[in-house]
Structures are given as C-alpha cells and as structure tokens.
Amino acid sequence: MATILEAAGLRKRYGSVQAVDGVSLAIEEGTCLGILGPNGAGKTTTIEMMEGILAPDEGTVTFRGEPIGREFKRKVGIQFQTTALPEFITVRETLKLFSSFYPSPRPFDEVVDLCSLSDILDRDNRKLSGGQRQRMLLALAIAPRPDVVFLDEPTTGLDPQARRNFWDLVRGIQAEKTTVVLTTHYMDEAQTLCDEVAIMDRGRILERGNPSRLLARHFRGALVRIPRGCVDGDRVPGKLVADHLEIQSENLDKTMRELLAAGVNLEGLSIHKPDLEDLFIELTGSSLRN
Amino acid sequence: MKQFRTMVYARTMEFVRDRGTFFWNLLFPVLLVFGFSFAFSGEGQPLFKVGVLGSPPAALESPASFLAIEQGRFIVYGPEESREAVLDRLRRHELDMVLDPGSRSYYLNVQGRNASLLRRLAAADPGLREYVERTVTGAPIRYVDWLVPGVIGMNIMFSCLFGVGFVLVRYRKNGVLKRLKATPVSAAAFVTAQAVSRFLIVILTSVVVFAGTNAFLRFRMEGSWAALLAIAALGIVSMEALGLVFAARLRSEELVNGLMNLATLPMLALSGVFFSLEGSPDILKSVSRALPLTHAIGAARAVMLEGAGFGRIAPDLLFLGIFSAAALALASALFRWE
Q1: Which ipTM did the prediction report?
Q2: Is residue B155 scored above 90 in pLDDT?
C-alpha cells in the first residue's frame, strides 16, 4: 500500500513548553491511525500540524509525496476538538454551506445517511446534544469526500452509547477506504477503530504499530492482579503497579497453583487481558488519566 | 459563485433569525426619528440667529440695539463664505436674519417664524437706521427633516461596525474561523461574503426605516433618490471597511467592543448626527471633516434639503471611496484567521 501522508521530524514549541518534540509518522492509504496519549501529550498539536492548520517550527508534512498546500485543503476533512458552529443556522444549512466550499462534495443525502443526521436536519446548531453535535462535525469532515479525515478526540465528553454510535459511523467511513487519523485518550476507542496506533507522551512517540501486535510484543498471556494487602513479601514473582501486584501469566492454571502454594489470599484477584492502557503504563510508568 | 451565495445566505439567515438584534436594528432608528419629531414639534427656542457678513458694525454693540441683548446670537462669516451661501442658510431657516454691513442691508426670510418681529425690531433700532431691508424666501425645514439622515447614518454606523467587526472577532474567538481556515475558502471570499450580507441587510433596513417614517412625517426631499442611495451605499461600505480594520486580528470581544465604542462616540458627537457643528470651534470642524460619517450625513442632507446633485456631493463620495479603499487595504494586510 502507498503512503498517503507523511510527517517527518515535526517540532513545535509554545513558550517554554516543547509541545511536539520530533514526531515522524507515515500513514498508509485506507488505514486508520490513532494517536494515543494523555491530555497534554502533544496529540492535538501534532494532528493540527499534519492538517496544515498549524505551521511546525521544524519538520515537514507531505501528502502523496508533495508538501501540503492549497490543493491539500480540498482533499482533507477535519473535525477539530472544539469548534463553534454558526448560530441560528440549521444542520441542513451548515452542511450545505460547508459542502459548497469544495469542488466535488459528497452528495447531501449520502452525508446525511452516513452520519445519521436525518432526524436533526432542521435543528438549530445551538440546540444539538453532545452526540448530535459530534455527528454533525463528522458530517462536515466527510462532506468534501476527503482522501484523509482527521478526527481530534471525537468522542470526548460523549456518553458510552453515543460513543458506540459514533464508532459505527467511523467504521462506515473506513469501509469506503477513507484514510482516518484520529487522536484519543480512550484506549478502547483506539483498539476498536485503529489499524495502527502511535503512543505519545510529552511530545514524543514512544511506540507505534498494530494494536494486537504491539500488545503481543509487550505482554505474554494475561495479567493477574492481586491487591497489595493480600500478598506477603517477595514470595511471588511479579511487579508492583500502583496498589496491586501484577503478574504476567502465559499459563493461568500454573500461575494459580503457584499462588495457592504460596498461600496468597485470592479474594481480590482479577484476571485481565492486556490492553493499550496497560501498554501505556508499561511504556511511561504512569497512568493515562491522571 | 455558489459558494459565495451560500455564505451570504448563511450569514444573512444568522442575522435575520437573531430576532432581538434584527428588530432592534429596525426599531431603534424609527423610535429615534419619531421621538425627536415629537420632542421638537412645538415652537423652537426663542433665539434669533443672526448671520453677519464681515465684522459686526460697532453701532450694534450699543445697548440701545436689540441685537445686543441676550436673546440674539451672532455668527460671523468671514470673506471665505460667499454671500449666497450665507443667504442659503437664511432660506433654509438656519438663520433668522443676515446683516450685510458692506452693502448696508439686512435680509429676512419672509417665511421665517420671526420675520415680522425682527422687521419691527430692526426698524426701531438706531444702529440699523440706514439699512435697507431685503428679503429671501424658503420654506422652513423641520428639525426632523434635518435629523433623519443623521439617524439613518448612525444606524448604518452601528450596524456595520458591530455586524461585521464584532461578529468576525466572535468567529475568531469561538473557532468558526479556524474551522473555515481548514477549508479551501479564501479569507477574502469569506470576508467579502460577510460584508455583502451585511450590506444587503443594512441598505434594506435603511430604506425600510426611511420609507416607514417618511409615510408619517413626509420629509423634505429636494434631490434625487439615486444620489441618496449612492451615498448610503458608499457610507455602508466605508463603515464596513472600518469594522474590518478593527476585526482584522483581535481575538477579544471585550477589547473590540471597547475600541468600537471609542470610534463610534466621536462620530456620534462630531459627525453632526443630532446637532449641527455650525459655529463650533475650527479644531472640531477639522476633526469632523476627517470622519467618514460626516461626509455621508452631510451629503445626504445636501441632497434632501438643498437638492444637491451628484456634482455637488462628488467630493463627499470621493472621500468615502478613498476612505473605504484605504481601510480595506489596511484590514487585508492585518487579517489573520486565528
């Protein structure tokens, strides 16, 4: 597959804060890349430089091998983290307005269908709920029939149901072979939607790759967790993470027997399939959402 | 073109559906015009305004002269004012009497409210014994005839400055501009669409306000509607251009609000919206002449009250045109999406 978008050596500094510190990413056409990280990791700064909204201090962004410029703007759809919509204008009018900016936009009905907007078309932008608003912003992002769609924390602040609905919409766009770049601090979102993830902290990319392969590389089997109070001394192999002892286990049967043999109280034990959040903690030594 | 139409449509709808702002834009000037019309419908102040060509004769300063008493006010016109220009003021009832010591004559407007009283006083005045009475004619101009261009001009000023400038700053602050920056729309096209939308709204409300109040008050209209429309159009463009300068890169609504108030207050006071600057200090008159609103309102009054044609208002239109071009150039040099 061909590389559609490539960022090389991006750096951006705000005052004394190096927000992005040497980020390089290449995105294959038709795939979904997720940039993961806690708040303040530099995700938004990175994605905005890739969108061409923000000029990098250093580094380049190329689209199909060419530096991004005017032409690029016709080929991308963007959903910002926060966007005000013109007031007193309905969803229908806003969509038509944004479609009119592009040379060959997606047909109106198709956008409405893809983003499930039919029930709110005549509603004033000001009267949209959180989930409806995100659907509307997604519609604005895909209305140009873009080659690349950027979604910056698209489900932050949505309830679980609305998030799931939103994921379905994004899958619908992916099914059309549109390249998607999204930032999120929800690991489940990345795991569900992304072919590749790049884990970011303090302006740098710590690790990138396919979520399952990344997990396979860093973890073997399941994670067994025992509350710290139930474990006595160093009789059990494993490491202390926050308030519990964590044991990586490829063979649960064997691990359980060892724990019982060691006289560990199994009352508070939990078995957990490693996910991206565990990987993040593994990589940074800190929890994602603190 | 479709893109442009859609942008103009969206912005216009945004305004029209904001009922509060919309009706305020219509209602405020109408209320002002009617309010002033009633407030000043009675007899005016018992003040004689006497224009003097050249310096007043010393005889008039003697206590015996009726013109020396408190109720009279002299406005002395230097040699730069032609006699005809001063007499025109008498014809328009801006003056009650004109003294011309050079030709030893005084002029009265036969339709003037105070003409017969002034004639008797003049005849009895020892200082004017050798003066000849001459008369001019001209129907009186009500204050409201004089006021209506001022009120509409003021409405244009507020509506354009805040409607274009303030809204752009709000768009910048809340991220609408950032979202647009991510589209292929050029800043020039977007801003022009905003300005065109506001232009249509303002020219329409101006016509509605004028026609609506005119139906009841029957303003004096000596000149052509085309000239009046041309002045309104250029006045709107110049105010929008000024609004765009303010909005070019500011992000704070509070700051732009303050700056615009700073700009509108002197224009309200010095552009002759509510009262004439006739007879005020030269320095104020110079400042006044530098303000675009002065030229718009002045030209509109010349057309309505004196029947001025395009030839006479050309300098004002030229001023408005140059002002607009300069402000637009400055605004586009300063403009930032974010």
Answers
A1: 0.78
A2: yes
Q: CATH 3.40.50.300 spans which residues of chain A?
A: 3-216
Residue of B nearest to A53 (CA): B182
- Spatial CB neighbours of A127, under 8 Å, sequence gap ≥ 6: none
Enter the tokens of residue A58: 């250093």
pLDDT tens column, A67-119: 998 889 899 999 988 778 888 899 999 999 999 999 889 999 999 988 889 99
State the residue for tokens 């519609």: A139
pTM for the complete prediction? Answer: 0.78
Round the average pLDDT of chain A to a whole number and report it: 88
Other beta carbons within 10 angstroms of residue A220's beta carbon come to 13
Residue of B nearest to A102 (CA): B184
Tell me whether residues A83 and B14 touch, CB distance under 8 A. no
Span B25-37, average pLDDT: 83
* In contact, A137 and A128? CB cutoff 8 Å: no
Residues in A closer than 8 angstroms to B166, CB to CB, are none
> What is the radius of gyration, based on Cα positions, of chain A?
22
**β A58-63/A196-201 pair status:** unpaired
CATH of domain A3-216: 3.40.50.300
